[in-house]
Predict the 3D structure of the following.
Amino acid sequence: MDDRLSQADLDRIIADPLRATPVDAERMAKELGELRERMRRKRKVTDAQVNEIRARRAHGESLRAIAADYDVSHAHVRDVCNVKTYGYVDSGAGKSDN
């Protein structure tokens, strides 16, 4: 059995949400969770690109020039460089091969 809601089911629930059954609510919650998971995973740049962005900025390149090359906003590039986003990506700076 398919657990996804049909368009007819969605229309019925939207038209009269008080008549939604517990099964409807459970199925809607499951679909919402799946949608959130897909959206959470969507990344604007890859981990390798994060390292490239940080390196280019460290060499003095402007935020806007970098942003144009990756088709993102200059604010996104700023957040990447300031480690507000992609904090889990280690740029490798300061590491040695001892």
User: Anything to note?
Assistant: The longest helix spans residues 22-41. Residues 23 and 95 are 54 Å apart (CA to CA). The chain has two domains: 7-41, 47-81. The chain is about 60% helix and 0% strand.
